[in-house]
Amino acid sequence: MLAHRPEYLAMRDISYTGFTQGDRAVGKGDGTWKTFGSSSTLSQEHVFVNSHHRWLFEQSFGTLFSALFGNRKLSASTAKLEMSRVAFRYPHLHKILQKIPIGLSS
User: Fold this and answer.
1) What band does 39 get if pLDDT is binned at 50, 70 and 90?
2) Distance between CA atoms of 48 and 50, rounded to whole angstroms?
3) How far is Cα 44 from Cα 4, in angstroms, rounded to an integer?
4) How much is the pLDDT for 67?
5) What is the CA radius of gyration of the chain?
6) Can you give 2-44 as a three-state secondary structure string?
7) Per-domain residue ranges for the chain?
């Protein structure tokens, strides 16, 4: 979506949604709302498309999230298991996460 954002914004002038809704409020997943046209709603984070996607990942994979983005340490076997769970559900995200060092316990 982010790569094609200019095309999406241009389509709003000729689409049904653009005529009837304009900039509608979109929940960011953290209790705040922004309009779709706001760059902060669609700003690309380090890994996630927006804060809502980041929040969803944290809720589903809290242990791995803490090891990737916090200071939690995981055993190598737990890290491998958690990454395989991500690979099964979200193969593209798995490829991105493989580039981030995981805190491993010794």
Assistant:
1) very low
2) 5
3) 13
4) 92
5) 17
6) CCCHHHHHHHCCCCHHHHHCCCCEEECCCCCEEECCCCCCCCC
7) 1-42, 61-106
